[in-house]
Amino acid sequence: MNSRALFTRTSLVLLALLLCLLDYGKIGIGHYASAQTVRLPLKKVYLRDPIKVDQHELESEEEAARRGLSTQNVTMTNYLDVQYYASLLIGDSKHSQTFIWDTGSTLLWIPLNNCSSCPSSNKHTPSGSWSNTGVRYTITYAVGEVSGVIANDNVYLTSSSGASMQLLGVDTVSADLGGLQADGVLGMGPAISSGRPGTLLVEQLKNAGVIGANTFSVEYTFRDETSSILLGGFDTSKVASESAFSWIDLKTTSHWTVPLKKMQYGSTQISIDADGGTLDTGTSLTLFQTADFTNLWAKITEGKTCGYLSGTSTRACQCNSTSDFEEILFQFTGYNAYMPVSAYITFIDNSVSQDLCTFSIDSYSGDLGNIVLLGDSFLREYYIYHDVDGKRVGLYGRTTSSSHLLTYTTLAALLVFCNFLA
Ligand SMILES: *[C@@H]1O[C@H](CO)[C@@H](O)[C@H](O)[C@H]1NC(C)=O
Ligand SMILES: *[C@@H]1O[C@H](CO)[C@@H](O)[C@H](O)[C@H]1NC(C)=O
Ligand SMILES: *[C@@H]1O[C@H](CO)[C@@H](O)[C@H](O)[C@H]1NC(C)=O
Protein backbone atom coordinates (compact mmCIF):
# COMPACT_ATOMS: atom_id res chain seq x y z
CA MET A 1 0.00 0.00 0.00
CA ASN A 2 1.50 3.37 -0.87
CA SER A 3 1.70 6.09 1.74
CA ARG A 4 -0.89 8.27 0.12
CA ALA A 5 -3.56 5.62 0.51
CA LEU A 6 -2.45 5.15 4.09
CA PHE A 7 -2.99 8.84 4.91
CA THR A 8 -6.32 8.90 3.23
CA ARG A 9 -7.62 5.92 5.09
CA THR A 10 -6.40 7.24 8.42
CA SER A 11 -7.99 10.61 7.96
CA LEU A 12 -11.32 9.06 7.19
CA VAL A 13 -11.22 7.09 10.40
CA LEU A 14 -10.31 10.14 12.46
CA LEU A 15 -13.09 12.13 10.92
CA ALA A 16 -15.69 9.62 12.01
CA LEU A 17 -14.42 9.83 15.57
CA LEU A 18 -14.58 13.59 16.01
CA LEU A 19 -17.25 14.76 18.39
CA CYS A 20 -19.30 17.90 18.56
CA LEU A 21 -21.31 17.49 21.74
CA LEU A 22 -22.82 20.91 22.08
CA ASP A 23 -26.43 20.86 23.18
CA TYR A 24 -27.54 24.08 21.52
CA GLY A 25 -31.04 24.11 22.86
CA LYS A 26 -33.21 22.69 20.11
CA ILE A 27 -36.27 21.20 21.74
CA GLY A 28 -36.25 17.47 21.20
CA ILE A 29 -39.11 15.14 20.48
CA GLY A 30 -41.23 14.12 23.42
CA HIS A 31 -42.30 16.57 26.03
CA TYR A 32 -40.81 17.39 29.34
CA ALA A 33 -43.77 18.52 31.41
CA SER A 34 -42.28 20.52 34.26
CA ALA A 35 -39.01 21.24 35.96
CA GLN A 36 -39.04 18.65 38.70
CA THR A 37 -35.71 19.55 40.15
CA VAL A 38 -35.54 21.89 43.10
CA ARG A 39 -32.36 23.88 42.76
CA LEU A 40 -31.04 25.07 46.08
CA PRO A 41 -29.46 28.49 46.16
CA LEU A 42 -25.87 27.79 47.11
CA LYS A 43 -23.64 30.11 49.02
CA LYS A 44 -19.93 29.89 48.66
CA VAL A 45 -18.35 28.45 51.74
CA TYR A 46 -15.45 30.60 52.79
CA LEU A 47 -15.31 29.41 56.36
CA ARG A 48 -14.78 26.03 57.86
CA ASP A 49 -14.29 26.68 61.51
CA PRO A 50 -16.71 28.98 63.38
CA ILE A 51 -13.98 29.91 65.85
CA LYS A 52 -12.05 31.47 63.04
CA VAL A 53 -15.04 33.66 62.24
CA ASP A 54 -14.90 35.14 65.71
CA GLN A 55 -11.26 35.84 65.17
CA HIS A 56 -12.04 37.41 61.78
CA GLU A 57 -9.76 35.00 60.00
CA LEU A 58 -11.50 34.20 56.79
CA GLU A 59 -10.19 31.27 54.91
CA SER A 60 -10.54 31.56 51.16
CA GLU A 61 -11.46 28.67 48.91
CA GLU A 62 -7.97 28.65 47.53
CA GLU A 63 -6.47 28.39 51.00
CA ALA A 64 -8.88 25.60 51.75
CA ALA A 65 -8.04 23.90 48.48
CA ARG A 66 -4.36 24.14 49.35
CA ARG A 67 -5.14 22.18 52.50
CA GLY A 68 -6.69 19.55 50.25
CA LEU A 69 -10.26 20.32 51.31
CA SER A 70 -12.73 18.08 49.60
CA THR A 71 -11.61 17.82 46.03
CA GLN A 72 -11.93 14.76 43.81
CA ASN A 73 -9.38 14.11 41.12
CA VAL A 74 -10.52 12.27 38.01
CA THR A 75 -7.97 10.97 35.51
CA MET A 76 -9.25 11.03 31.96
CA THR A 77 -8.55 8.47 29.26
CA ASN A 78 -7.36 10.23 26.12
CA TYR A 79 -8.49 8.63 22.87
CA LEU A 80 -6.24 9.95 20.04
CA ASP A 81 -6.48 13.54 21.35
CA VAL A 82 -10.08 13.74 20.05
CA GLN A 83 -12.14 12.16 22.86
CA TYR A 84 -11.54 12.31 26.63
CA TYR A 85 -13.50 10.13 29.02
CA ALA A 86 -13.63 8.73 32.54
CA SER A 87 -15.92 6.36 34.38
CA LEU A 88 -18.73 6.77 36.89
CA LEU A 89 -20.50 4.05 38.86
CA ILE A 90 -24.23 3.92 38.15
CA GLY A 91 -27.00 2.83 40.50
CA ASP A 92 -26.91 0.57 43.54
CA SER A 93 -25.23 -2.10 41.41
CA LYS A 94 -22.38 0.45 41.03
CA HIS A 95 -22.05 -0.54 37.42
CA SER A 96 -19.02 1.14 35.86
CA GLN A 97 -19.62 3.01 32.62
CA THR A 98 -17.43 5.54 30.82
CA PHE A 99 -18.53 9.08 29.89
CA ILE A 100 -17.31 12.01 27.85
CA TRP A 101 -17.24 14.78 30.46
CA ASP A 102 -18.87 17.39 28.26
CA THR A 103 -18.91 21.07 29.23
CA GLY A 104 -21.09 21.77 26.15
CA SER A 105 -24.25 20.12 27.51
CA THR A 106 -26.01 19.61 30.83
CA LEU A 107 -27.63 16.19 30.96
CA LEU A 108 -26.04 12.87 31.97
CA TRP A 109 -27.09 10.05 29.66
CA ILE A 110 -26.32 6.37 30.00
CA PRO A 111 -27.00 3.58 27.48
CA LEU A 112 -29.67 1.13 28.69
CA ASN A 113 -29.76 -2.61 28.11
CA ASN A 114 -32.64 -2.21 25.63
CA CYS A 115 -30.63 0.14 23.35
CA SER A 116 -29.76 -1.64 20.13
CA SER A 117 -28.49 1.51 18.37
CA CYS A 118 -26.06 2.42 21.18
CA PRO A 119 -22.43 2.24 19.98
CA SER A 120 -21.30 0.79 23.32
CA SER A 121 -21.86 -2.80 24.38
CA ASN A 122 -21.46 -1.89 28.06
CA LYS A 123 -25.12 -1.08 28.74
CA HIS A 124 -26.85 -0.50 32.03
CA THR A 125 -29.59 -2.65 33.49
CA PRO A 126 -31.67 -0.50 35.83
CA SER A 127 -31.66 -1.88 39.38
CA GLY A 128 -33.43 -1.13 42.68
CA SER A 129 -32.35 2.50 43.11
CA TRP A 130 -33.49 3.42 39.58
CA SER A 131 -36.67 5.45 39.49
CA ASN A 132 -38.19 6.04 36.09
CA THR A 133 -40.25 9.24 35.57
CA GLY A 134 -41.80 7.84 32.39
CA VAL A 135 -41.01 11.11 30.60
CA ARG A 136 -39.29 10.71 27.25
CA TYR A 137 -36.65 13.24 26.22
CA THR A 138 -34.19 13.83 23.37
CA ILE A 139 -30.81 15.57 23.56
CA THR A 140 -29.87 17.19 20.27
CA TYR A 141 -26.15 17.86 19.95
CA ALA A 142 -24.55 19.90 17.16
CA VAL A 143 -23.77 16.47 15.71
CA GLY A 144 -26.02 13.57 16.67
CA GLU A 145 -28.88 12.97 19.06
CA VAL A 146 -29.92 10.51 21.77
CA SER A 147 -33.39 9.68 23.15
CA GLY A 148 -34.66 7.86 26.15
CA VAL A 149 -36.43 8.21 29.42
CA ILE A 150 -35.78 10.61 32.32
CA ALA A 151 -34.99 8.76 35.55
CA ASN A 152 -33.42 9.29 38.96
CA ASP A 153 -30.59 7.17 40.31
CA ASN A 154 -27.44 7.42 42.39
CA VAL A 155 -24.18 8.12 40.60
CA TYR A 156 -20.79 7.50 42.24
CA LEU A 157 -17.28 8.78 41.59
CA THR A 158 -15.87 6.04 43.81
CA SER A 159 -17.77 3.30 45.62
CA SER A 160 -18.03 5.51 48.71
CA SER A 161 -18.70 8.95 47.23
CA GLY A 162 -21.67 9.79 45.11
CA ALA A 163 -24.86 11.78 44.77
CA SER A 164 -28.38 11.41 43.50
CA MET A 165 -28.85 12.50 39.89
CA GLN A 166 -31.64 13.02 37.43
CA LEU A 167 -30.41 11.53 34.16
CA LEU A 168 -31.46 10.17 30.81
CA GLY A 169 -31.63 6.40 30.30
CA VAL A 170 -31.00 6.12 26.57
CA ASP A 171 -32.56 3.53 24.26
CA THR A 172 -31.92 5.26 20.90
CA VAL A 173 -28.69 6.83 19.55
CA SER A 174 -28.35 8.37 16.08
CA ALA A 175 -25.86 6.79 13.66
CA ASP A 176 -23.61 9.89 13.58
CA LEU A 177 -22.57 9.15 17.18
CA GLY A 178 -21.24 5.75 16.10
CA GLY A 179 -17.63 6.84 16.75
CA LEU A 180 -18.27 7.61 20.42
CA GLN A 181 -15.59 5.80 22.44
CA ALA A 182 -17.31 6.23 25.81
CA ASP A 183 -20.54 4.54 26.88
CA GLY A 184 -22.38 7.83 27.48
CA VAL A 185 -21.99 11.57 28.05
CA LEU A 186 -21.89 13.57 31.30
CA GLY A 187 -23.11 17.14 30.73
CA MET A 188 -21.12 19.70 32.75
CA GLY A 189 -22.63 22.98 31.55
CA PRO A 190 -22.89 25.86 34.05
CA ALA A 191 -26.68 25.76 34.52
CA ILE A 192 -29.71 23.85 33.35
CA SER A 193 -32.02 26.04 31.29
CA SER A 194 -35.49 26.38 32.76
CA GLY A 195 -37.93 23.65 31.84
CA ARG A 196 -35.14 21.23 31.01
CA PRO A 197 -34.57 18.01 32.94
CA GLY A 198 -31.46 16.86 34.76
CA THR A 199 -29.17 17.71 37.64
CA LEU A 200 -25.54 18.80 37.53
CA LEU A 201 -23.10 16.31 39.01
CA VAL A 202 -20.73 18.90 40.50
CA GLU A 203 -23.61 20.71 42.24
CA GLN A 204 -25.03 17.42 43.55
CA LEU A 205 -21.63 16.31 44.84
CA LYS A 206 -21.25 19.67 46.56
CA ASN A 207 -24.70 19.32 48.16
CA ALA A 208 -23.83 15.79 49.27
CA GLY A 209 -20.62 17.05 50.89
CA VAL A 210 -18.36 15.02 48.61
CA ILE A 211 -16.58 18.14 47.32
CA GLY A 212 -16.11 21.51 48.98
CA ALA A 213 -17.09 23.93 46.21
CA ASN A 214 -19.31 24.10 43.16
CA THR A 215 -16.31 24.36 40.84
CA PHE A 216 -14.15 22.15 38.66
CA SER A 217 -10.91 22.43 36.74
CA VAL A 218 -10.06 20.86 33.42
CA GLU A 219 -6.57 20.01 32.26
CA TYR A 220 -6.67 18.31 28.88
CA THR A 221 -3.34 17.40 27.31
CA PHE A 222 -1.87 15.58 24.36
CA ARG A 223 -1.49 11.83 24.81
CA ASP A 224 2.07 12.01 26.14
CA GLU A 225 0.80 13.69 29.33
CA THR A 226 -2.02 12.93 31.77
CA SER A 227 -5.40 14.63 31.42
CA SER A 228 -7.55 15.19 34.46
CA ILE A 229 -10.57 16.98 35.87
CA LEU A 230 -10.41 18.17 39.46
CA LEU A 231 -13.86 18.54 41.06
CA GLY A 232 -14.32 21.11 43.84
CA GLY A 233 -11.28 23.30 43.20
CA PHE A 234 -8.06 23.65 41.29
CA ASP A 235 -4.67 22.03 41.61
CA THR A 236 -2.44 24.41 43.56
CA SER A 237 0.62 22.53 42.37
CA LYS A 238 -0.28 23.65 38.86
CA VAL A 239 -1.70 27.13 39.46
CA ALA A 240 -0.43 28.82 42.60
CA SER A 241 -3.49 30.87 43.51
CA GLU A 242 -6.95 31.86 42.35
CA SER A 243 -5.61 35.27 41.36
CA ALA A 244 -3.14 33.65 38.96
CA PHE A 245 -6.06 32.78 36.64
CA SER A 246 -7.33 35.29 34.11
CA TRP A 247 -11.02 35.51 34.96
CA ILE A 248 -13.72 36.03 32.36
CA ASP A 249 -17.40 36.44 33.23
CA LEU A 250 -19.77 34.27 31.23
CA LYS A 251 -21.77 35.89 28.46
CA THR A 252 -24.68 33.54 29.07
CA THR A 253 -25.15 30.78 31.62
CA SER A 254 -26.64 28.30 29.16
CA HIS A 255 -23.07 27.34 28.18
CA TRP A 256 -19.51 28.14 29.21
CA THR A 257 -19.57 31.01 26.70
CA VAL A 258 -17.34 34.06 27.12
CA PRO A 259 -17.61 37.32 25.16
CA LEU A 260 -15.37 37.41 22.10
CA LYS A 261 -14.30 40.89 21.00
CA LYS A 262 -11.87 40.27 18.19
CA MET A 263 -9.80 37.64 16.44
CA GLN A 264 -6.37 37.86 14.83
CA TYR A 265 -4.18 35.62 12.69
CA GLY A 266 -0.70 36.74 13.63
CA SER A 267 -1.04 40.53 13.62
CA THR A 268 -3.85 40.59 11.05
CA GLN A 269 -7.37 41.13 12.32
CA ILE A 270 -9.88 38.63 10.97
CA SER A 271 -13.37 39.88 10.32
CA ILE A 272 -15.82 37.71 12.29
CA ASP A 273 -19.52 37.66 13.11
CA ALA A 274 -18.99 35.56 16.23
CA ASP A 275 -19.28 37.48 19.50
CA GLY A 276 -18.81 34.54 21.85
CA GLY A 277 -16.45 31.65 22.42
CA THR A 278 -17.93 28.48 23.94
CA LEU A 279 -15.57 26.26 25.92
CA ASP A 280 -16.64 22.71 25.09
CA THR A 281 -14.71 19.61 26.17
CA GLY A 282 -17.15 17.48 24.13
CA THR A 283 -16.00 18.99 20.83
CA SER A 284 -12.76 17.61 19.39
CA LEU A 285 -11.68 20.52 17.19
CA THR A 286 -12.05 24.29 17.33
CA LEU A 287 -14.90 25.18 15.00
CA PHE A 288 -15.94 28.46 13.39
CA GLN A 289 -19.15 29.39 11.67
CA THR A 290 -18.69 29.13 7.91
CA ALA A 291 -18.23 32.82 7.03
CA ASP A 292 -15.78 33.41 9.88
CA PHE A 293 -13.79 30.32 8.94
CA THR A 294 -13.63 31.40 5.31
CA ASN A 295 -11.99 34.67 6.38
CA LEU A 296 -9.50 32.92 8.67
CA TRP A 297 -8.72 30.16 6.15
CA ALA A 298 -7.98 32.75 3.44
CA LYS A 299 -5.26 34.23 5.68
CA ILE A 300 -3.85 30.87 6.74
CA THR A 301 -3.54 29.60 3.17
CA GLU A 302 -2.23 32.83 1.65
CA GLY A 303 0.74 31.94 -0.56
CA LYS A 304 0.51 28.23 0.29
CA THR A 305 -0.48 25.09 -1.55
CA CYS A 306 -3.53 23.75 0.27
CA GLY A 307 -6.50 21.56 -0.40
CA TYR A 308 -8.01 18.36 0.89
CA LEU A 309 -6.38 15.02 1.54
CA SER A 310 -7.44 13.10 -1.54
CA GLY A 311 -10.93 11.69 -1.32
CA THR A 312 -11.61 13.18 2.13
CA SER A 313 -13.00 16.38 3.64
CA THR A 314 -9.82 16.84 5.70
CA ARG A 315 -8.07 20.12 4.91
CA ALA A 316 -4.33 19.97 4.41
CA CYS A 317 -1.46 22.20 3.26
CA GLN A 318 2.07 21.56 2.13
CA CYS A 319 4.24 22.69 5.01
CA ASN A 320 7.68 22.23 6.49
CA SER A 321 7.53 23.79 9.94
CA THR A 322 5.36 25.68 12.37
CA SER A 323 7.02 28.88 11.17
CA ASP A 324 4.97 28.55 7.96
CA PHE A 325 1.97 29.62 10.08
CA GLU A 326 0.99 32.18 12.70
CA GLU A 327 -0.78 31.91 16.01
CA ILE A 328 -4.49 32.66 16.32
CA LEU A 329 -5.52 35.22 18.90
CA PHE A 330 -8.94 35.30 20.55
CA GLN A 331 -9.53 38.56 22.34
CA PHE A 332 -12.04 37.96 25.12
CA THR A 333 -13.10 40.78 27.44
CA GLY A 334 -9.94 41.65 29.27
CA TYR A 335 -7.92 38.65 28.14
CA ASN A 336 -6.00 37.62 25.04
CA ALA A 337 -6.07 33.86 24.54
CA TYR A 338 -3.55 32.51 22.05
CA MET A 339 -3.83 29.35 20.05
CA PRO A 340 -0.26 28.60 18.97
CA VAL A 341 0.46 26.96 15.63
CA SER A 342 1.34 23.69 17.38
CA ALA A 343 -2.20 23.61 18.79
CA TYR A 344 -3.97 23.68 15.46
CA ILE A 345 -1.75 21.86 12.98
CA THR A 346 -0.53 18.27 12.87
CA PHE A 347 2.43 17.34 10.70
CA ILE A 348 2.15 14.26 8.63
CA ASP A 349 5.64 12.88 8.18
CA ASN A 350 5.54 12.10 4.51
CA SER A 351 8.80 10.61 3.33
CA VAL A 352 7.51 10.13 -0.20
CA SER A 353 6.58 13.65 -1.27
CA GLN A 354 6.37 17.16 0.20
CA ASP A 355 5.35 17.11 3.89
CA LEU A 356 1.74 17.86 4.64
CA CYS A 357 -0.07 19.15 7.67
CA THR A 358 -3.68 18.86 8.68
CA PHE A 359 -5.70 21.18 10.91
CA SER A 360 -7.59 20.88 14.15
CA ILE A 361 -9.65 23.94 13.30
CA ASP A 362 -12.54 23.80 10.87
CA SER A 363 -15.94 25.25 10.11
CA TYR A 364 -19.34 24.10 11.30
CA SER A 365 -22.47 24.53 9.28
CA GLY A 366 -25.73 25.56 10.83
CA ASP A 367 -26.57 28.22 13.37
CA LEU A 368 -25.24 27.79 16.90
CA GLY A 369 -25.72 31.50 17.64
CA ASN A 370 -22.60 33.42 16.53
CA ILE A 371 -20.09 31.45 18.51
CA VAL A 372 -16.69 29.95 18.03
CA LEU A 373 -16.72 26.43 19.48
CA LEU A 374 -13.53 26.20 21.51
CA GLY A 375 -13.01 22.45 21.59
CA ASP A 376 -10.22 20.20 22.81
CA SER A 377 -7.64 21.62 20.39
CA PHE A 378 -8.04 25.03 22.10
CA LEU A 379 -8.62 23.75 25.63
CA ARG A 380 -5.33 21.82 25.71
CA GLU A 381 -3.49 25.13 25.87
CA TYR A 382 -5.08 26.10 29.18
CA TYR A 383 -5.73 24.94 32.70
CA ILE A 384 -9.36 26.00 33.04
CA TYR A 385 -11.15 26.69 36.29
CA HIS A 386 -14.96 26.60 35.99
CA ASP A 387 -16.65 28.60 38.75
CA VAL A 388 -20.32 27.65 38.59
CA ASP A 389 -21.70 29.97 41.30
CA GLY A 390 -19.47 32.85 40.20
CA LYS A 391 -20.59 32.37 36.56
CA ARG A 392 -17.04 32.82 35.34
CA VAL A 393 -14.09 30.87 34.01
CA GLY A 394 -10.43 31.24 34.88
CA LEU A 395 -7.87 30.54 32.17
CA TYR A 396 -4.25 29.77 32.94
CA GLY A 397 -1.85 29.16 30.04
CA ARG A 398 -0.19 25.76 30.04
CA THR A 399 3.05 25.04 28.24
CA THR A 400 2.63 22.17 25.84
CA SER A 401 5.12 20.32 23.69
CA SER A 402 5.93 22.26 20.55
CA SER A 403 5.01 19.84 17.80
CA HIS A 404 3.05 16.68 17.46
CA LEU A 405 4.32 14.60 14.65
CA LEU A 406 1.98 11.94 13.42
CA THR A 407 4.50 9.22 12.61
CA TYR A 408 4.22 6.09 10.57
CA THR A 409 4.00 4.11 13.79
CA THR A 410 0.89 5.99 14.81
CA LEU A 411 -0.57 5.65 11.35
CA ALA A 412 -0.02 1.91 11.37
CA ALA A 413 -1.72 1.64 14.77
CA LEU A 414 -4.68 3.65 13.51
CA LEU A 415 -4.95 1.51 10.44
CA VAL A 416 -5.15 -1.63 12.56
CA PHE A 417 -7.84 0.05 14.58
CA CYS A 418 -9.71 1.00 11.43
CA ASN A 419 -9.67 -2.59 10.18
CA PHE A 420 -10.88 -3.72 13.56
CA LEU A 421 -13.84 -1.36 13.32
CA ALA A 422 -14.74 -2.28 9.78
C1 LIG B 1 -35.96 0.81 27.70
O1 LIG B 1 -35.93 0.65 29.09
C2 LIG B 1 -36.39 1.76 29.84
C3 LIG B 1 -36.14 1.52 31.32
O2 LIG B 1 -36.62 0.29 31.72
C4 LIG B 1 -37.84 2.03 29.51
O3 LIG B 1 -38.34 3.11 30.23
C5 LIG B 1 -37.93 2.32 28.02
O4 LIG B 1 -39.27 2.55 27.62
C6 LIG B 1 -37.36 1.16 27.23
N1 LIG B 1 -37.31 1.53 25.82
C7 LIG B 1 -37.76 0.74 24.86
C8 LIG B 1 -37.62 1.24 23.46
O5 LIG B 1 -38.27 -0.35 25.10
C1 LIG C 1 -4.76 14.73 39.66
O1 LIG C 1 -4.36 13.69 38.79
C2 LIG C 1 -3.42 14.10 37.82
C3 LIG C 1 -3.23 12.97 36.86
O2 LIG C 1 -3.14 11.74 37.50
C4 LIG C 1 -2.14 14.57 38.48
O3 LIG C 1 -1.23 15.03 37.51
C5 LIG C 1 -2.47 15.70 39.44
O4 LIG C 1 -1.32 16.07 40.16
C6 LIG C 1 -3.56 15.28 40.42
N1 LIG C 1 -3.96 16.46 41.17
C7 LIG C 1 -4.28 16.43 42.45
C8 LIG C 1 -4.67 17.71 43.08
O5 LIG C 1 -4.26 15.39 43.09
C1 LIG D 1 9.60 23.05 2.15
O1 LIG D 1 10.96 22.78 1.92
C2 LIG D 1 11.26 22.40 0.57
C3 LIG D 1 12.71 21.99 0.52
O2 LIG D 1 13.52 22.84 1.27
C4 LIG D 1 10.93 23.57 -0.35
O3 LIG D 1 11.19 23.22 -1.68
C5 LIG D 1 9.45 23.91 -0.19
O4 LIG D 1 9.12 25.04 -0.97
C6 LIG D 1 9.10 24.19 1.27
N1 LIG D 1 7.66 24.30 1.37
C7 LIG D 1 7.08 25.25 2.06
C8 LIG D 1 5.57 25.20 2.08
O5 LIG D 1 7.67 26.14 2.62
From TrEMBL:
<feature type="signal peptide">
    <location>
        <begin position="1"/>
        <end position="28"/>
    </location>
</feature>
<dbReference type="InterPro" id="IPR034164">
    <property type="entry name" value="Pepsin-like_dom"/>
</dbReference>
<feature type="domain" description="Peptidase A1">
    <location>
        <begin position="84"/>
        <end position="396"/>
    </location>
</feature>
<feature type="active site">
    <location>
        <position position="102"/>
    </location>
</feature>
<dbReference type="GO" id="GO:0004190">
    <property type="term" value="F:aspartic-type endopeptidase activity"/>
</dbReference>
<protein>
    <recommendedName>
        <fullName>Peptidase A1 domain-containing protein</fullName>
    </recommendedName>
</protein>
<comment type="similarity">
    <text>Belongs to the peptidase A1 family.</text>
</comment>
<keyword id="KW-0378">Hydrolase</keyword>
<dbReference type="InterPro" id="IPR021109">
    <property type="entry name" value="Peptidase_aspartic_dom_sf"/>
</dbReference>
<keyword id="KW-0645">Protease</keyword>
<dbReference type="InterPro" id="IPR001969">
    <property type="entry name" value="Aspartic_peptidase_AS"/>
</dbReference>
<keyword id="KW-0064">Aspartyl protease</keyword>
<feature type="active site">
    <location>
        <position position="280"/>
    </location>
</feature>
<keyword id="KW-1015">Disulfide bond</keyword>
<dbReference type="GO" id="GO:0006508">
    <property type="term" value="P:proteolysis"/>
</dbReference>
<feature type="disulfide bond">
    <location>
        <begin position="319"/>
        <end position="357"/>
    </location>
</feature>
<keyword id="KW-0732">Signal</keyword>
<dbReference type="InterPro" id="IPR001461">
    <property type="entry name" value="Aspartic_peptidase_A1"/>
</dbReference>
<dbReference type="Pfam" id="PF00026">
    <property type="entry name" value="Asp"/>
</dbReference>
<dbReference type="InterPro" id="IPR033121">
    <property type="entry name" value="PEPTIDASE_A1"/>
</dbReference>
